[in-house]
Amino acid sequence: MRYVRYAILALIAIVLVSMSLANREPLTLALYPDPVAEFMGWNIVVTLPVFTVILASVAVGVLVGFIWEWIREYRHRKAAATSSREARKLEREVKRLKKEKNKGKDEVLAILEDA
């Protein structure tokens, strides 16, 4: 199984390297369109290789997806935590009731009754 994971990671690395080598041309990114930049009097312009823009876009998309799912699953995590707290509380109560029930009895008989 470990070798399959390494093979998949190697395949992904080969695809990313070949895509990066094929898309090395410079790309100019501007924060605002030209008319808005002229009106405001300033604009942020960056020139990057195309593959950095592609990889950064994929990374941002994955990050947004993770955050979206984490927020969406909050309700389920909250319900699981509540259930876990309730289960621990009930286990403590069962132990306390067994101890009260077996109070004054022989230890061996109390163990056998609990089993």
From TrEMBL:
Gene Ontology MF, one: isomerase activity
InterPro entries per the UniProt record, alphabetical: LapA_dom
Cellular component aspect of the GO annotation: plasma membrane
Keywords: Cell membrane, Coiled coil, Isomerase, Membrane, Transmembrane, Transmembrane helix
Record flagged with keyword Transmembrane: yes
Coiled-coil blocks: 80-107
Lipopolysaccharide assembly protein A domain location: 45-94
Origin: domain of life: Bacteria
Transmembrane segments annotated in the record for this chain: 40-68
Protein name as annotated: Phosphoribosylanthranilate isomerase
Species in which this protein is naturally found: Marinibacterium profundimaris
